[in-house]
Specification:
Length: about 260
């Protein structure tokens, strides 16, 4: 039976958060042009728009002042929309992809270019003045923008973290998988629908509602939820839940809900 409370700031007590499992990592080996890159790995420019992926320890950071669409790769390559400038660099085990429009003089440069991501990648995205849209990407994802929505559909990995963040916009995720799921905003809603039960969920906003749905057969959680101006409702909390299954949900102005599908 769902439990409903009004303005419960402290909520129910939980145990300290558990460290998330290490995500699957990605080794990015350049295509034949790679011989031009510095083996030492510091700021090695990339003219081509693809990297070949294999299993190892590198990661990719994608940076843009606009927005971004992430889509699944057809094979083991990361590829970039050829309508935008793509500049690769490398430092130690991290590849950085900077996206821009300097060579386009503002003409024909998309505000939401695409980058394709192979399965098993570890990808961090930082955007600024538009949203981020992710569809069918089976990867460890850390996605952040400032002004825009973050939308994720049928993505993530059940053994990797999934982190979604914006400041002025909503976070909406459906049919996602993650070991640990974290979603935050300041001005907007956080709506999360999980295809598989994550070990832990953290969802926070200030001006908006929080709504988290886990599968019908998901185990119980230790839940902490609170709002100053709204209602809190849950049917997933149990005092005897596994101490490692934690859910922390909060807002200031809005409702907070945690439920089974």
């Amino acid at each position: 039976m769902a439990v409903s409370m009004r303005g419960n700031r402290r909520g129910m007590m939980v145990m300290p958060p558990r460290r998330l499992l290490s995500p699957t990592l990605l080794l990015l080996l350049a295509l034949p042009f790679a011989s031009s890159c510095d083996d030492g790995g510091s700021d090695a420019a990339r003219a081509d728009n693809a990297l070949r992926a294999a299993a190892s320890g590198d990661e990719v950071l994608i940076s843009t002042d606009n927005g971004l669409r992430l889509r699944p790769a057809d094979g083991d390559h990361i590829t970039v929309d050829d309508r935008i400038d793509a500049h690769w660099s490398r430092h130690d085990d991290r590849w950085t992809l900077d996206l821009g429009c300097a060579d386009h003089d503002g003409h024909g440069c998309p505000r939401m270019p695409y980058v394709t991501i192979p399965d098993g990648a570890k990808v961090t995205v930082t955007a600024r003045n538009a949203g981020i849209d992710v569809v069918d990407v089976a990867a460890a994802l850390d996605v952040t923008t400032v002004n825009g929505d973050v939308t994720v559909t049928h993505s993530g990995q059940d053994d990797a973290p999934l982190r979604l963040s914006t400041r002025n916009g909503s976070v909406r995720a459906s049919s996602v998988e993650a070991d640990g799921l974290r979603a935050t905003t300041v001005n907007g809603d956080v709506v999360l629908q999980c295809a598989a039960a994550p070990t832990g969920v953290t969802a926070r906003t200030v001006n908006g509602s929080v709504d988290v749905t886990v599968p019908r057969d998901a185990p119980a959680y230790h839940v902490t939820m609170g709002t100053d101006n709204g209602r809190t409702t849950t049917d997933v909390h149990a005092q005897g839940a596994d101490r490692n299954r934690l859910m922390t949900l909060s807002t200031v102005n809005g409702d907070v809900t945690a439920r089974r599908d």
